[in-house]
Amino acid sequence: MQKIEQSLFPTGCWVGFVAGLITMAVSCSKSHEGSYYDYQNKNAVYDGNTYEFLQSQKGLFDSLLLVIDRVPDLMDTIKNYDITLFAPNNQCFTNALNNLNELRATQHKLPLSLKDIDLVELDTLLCRYVIPGNYVTDSLVEFSDGISVNSLRYDYKMHLRYNRQDASGYQNGGPQEIEFSDPKNSIFERYWVTTYTTSVNVHTDNGLVHLLSGGHEFGFGEFSGRMNK
Q: Which residues touch 1 (CB under 8 Å, ≥6 apart)?
């Protein structure tokens, strides 16, 4: 199989790519957070591990790779263990850093970068995006209320819910997406922070990747509070 060379984060309304024996035409529509997601992206296969997939998507996951490299042992997990990664792109980190540094400016503090932020707090937040096991969309369809899953290392609960949007007059005939939520240790959804996928079900040699919307702020609203030290 060939490696996917084209970014799976669509910039127009029609995108195509070839991965090995798989050829897909991807149609897209506006997501909840202002970017685009795929009508069809069900069986994308990347010939390499999850870390290598992130590297192959030039200009999309530079920030994610930088923070993965900073966290002890996380690179090994991303490369070698059976995981589902909900991958925040560069814009997700920009959103978080902008909010952090706007806050710090009001307090007359110097701005921080991803190279400067607290490593322990970074580890805590980053592990929420890594779910042990393989959670393809087909495994979520039967759970109308979604499922609670443990994130990596800290036994922290995250929540996954499958959605199928309407399209062209057909109910549930549109794009697949996953609602990816941080429940904040609450059973009440009004306290949850939720983001959405833009592309789903990218299979790698050791796991699965779902790509998150660029409207998401890395850290599910906790980045500034944890990093402003």
A: 19, 20, 21, 45, 47
Helix (H) or strand (E) holding 131: strand 130-132
pTM of this prediction?
0.82
Q: Residue 229 and residue 216: Cα distance in Å, rounded? A: 23
Q: Is the distance from CB of 4 to CB of 53 less than 8 angstroms?
A: yes
- For the beta carbon of residue 200, count every other beta carbon within 10 angstroms: 25
Tokens 């994130």 correspond to what residue? 151
Instruction: Spell out a b/e string for 130-139, using b for 16 or more CB atoms within 10 Å of the CB, else e.
Output: bbbeebbbee
* pLDDT tens profile 11-55: 333 233 323 322 332 334 444 554 433 434 456 999 999 999 999
> In terms of C-beta density within 10 A (0-12 exposed, 13-18 middle, 19 or more buried), how is residue 193 classed?
middle
Q: Please write the tens of the pLDDT for every residue from 124-162.
A: 999 999 999 999 999 999 999 999 999 998 989 999 999
pLDDT in tens, 20-29: 322 332 334 4
Residue 67 buriedness (CB in 10 A; 0-12 / 13-18 / 19+)? buried
